[in-house]
């Protein structure tokens, strides 16, 4: 990633933003785990970590990730900048993307509000360990939450709805990582950015023409898209892992902050 306009625009946004806060599964072919309806007084957050030699350390790391999701639910701000460069020559194309998320990083206060059953609420997949947690809340999220590992590709990947129950929808994606937990985290972060882009995006286009004495004339078209926003009630509804490629897709909702 080249420095320059991406870093500058991101820095300007966060300088000016007024934020509101100071081992494996036996049946990997068709499995849905952590499926639960949010009750009237609780929310569900599934945390993930890589499997480690010390299981307790891995579980604690997964709990911290769940607390991070809880922080996102309270409020998360983001900025994403994408630049597509297309030239008239063969293979003269590249795409660059940069983003940054800002949220309340005092995760201890969220961590202490999470509850889980150390026997029933822990499961593993590939080289990742998951912890299903719940937090008491007066906010009702009328969604069934689940993490699935199945051959059947969910409909929302190819045909995502624009809204669900009045919330803006975002679908996040991550390709395979050596640590599956990194792919899961990258996927839900991408869902945050997708919702921000769905709410507000600006596109700047420019054309640059130049002559090359060796290879001749070339036309380059550069398109820059810039989106920023603050979300409230960011909530993951479902995460799906492709059992063949181990790519991860995340379906999430949020409202504008």
Overview of this protein structure:
This protein has helices at residues 5-16, 55-74, 108-111, 155-158, 180-199, and strands at 30-37, 42-50, 76-87, 93-103, 114-115, 122-125, 128-136, 144-150, 163-164, 167-174, 202-212, 216-241, 248-256. It is α+β, with helices and mostly antiparallel strands. Helices cover 23% and strands 46% of the residues. Strands 1, 3, 4, 8, 9, 10, 11, 12 and 13 form a nine-stranded mixed beta sheet that branches. Strands 2, 5, 6 and 7 form a four-stranded antiparallel beta sheet that branches. Strand 3 and strand 4 (93-103) form a beta hairpin. The longest helix is centred in the N-terminal third of the chain and has 20 residues, at 55-74. It has one domain (28-76, 104-206, 226-256). It starts with a helix and ends with a strand. It is globular and about 65 Å long.
């Amino acid at each position: 990633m080249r420095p320059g306009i991406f870093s500058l625009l991101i820095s300007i946004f966060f300088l000016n933003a007024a934020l509101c806060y100071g081992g494996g599964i036996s049946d990997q072919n068709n499995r849905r785990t952590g499926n639960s309806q949010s009750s009237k007084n609780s929310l569900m957050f599934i945390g993930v970590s890589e499997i480690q030699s010390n299981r307790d350390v891995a579980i604690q790391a997964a709990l911290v990730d769940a607390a991070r999701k809880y922080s996102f639910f309270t409020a998360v701000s983001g900025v994403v900048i994408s630049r597509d460069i297309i030239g008239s020559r063969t293979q003269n194309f590249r795409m660059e993307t940069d983003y940054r998320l800002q949220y309340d990083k005092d995760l201890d206060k969220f961590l202490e509000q999470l509850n889980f059953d150390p026997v029933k609420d822990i499961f593993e997949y590939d080289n990742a360990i998951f912890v299903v947690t719940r937090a008491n809340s007066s906010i009702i999220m009328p969604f069934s939450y689940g993490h699935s590992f199945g051959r059947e590709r969910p409909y929302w990947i190819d045909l995502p709805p624009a809204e669900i129950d009045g919330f803006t929808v975002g679908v996040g994606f991550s390709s395979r990582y050596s640590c599956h937990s990194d792919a899961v985290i990258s996927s839900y972060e991408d869902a945050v950015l997708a919702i921000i882009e769905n709410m507000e995006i600006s596109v700047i286009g420019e054309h640059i023409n130049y002559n090359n004495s060796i290879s001749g004339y070339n036309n380059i078209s550069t398109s820059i898209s810039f989106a920023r926003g603050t979300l409230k009630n960011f909530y993951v509804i479902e995460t799906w892992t492709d059992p063949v490629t181990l790519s991860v897709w995340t379906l999430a909702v949020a409202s504008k902050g």
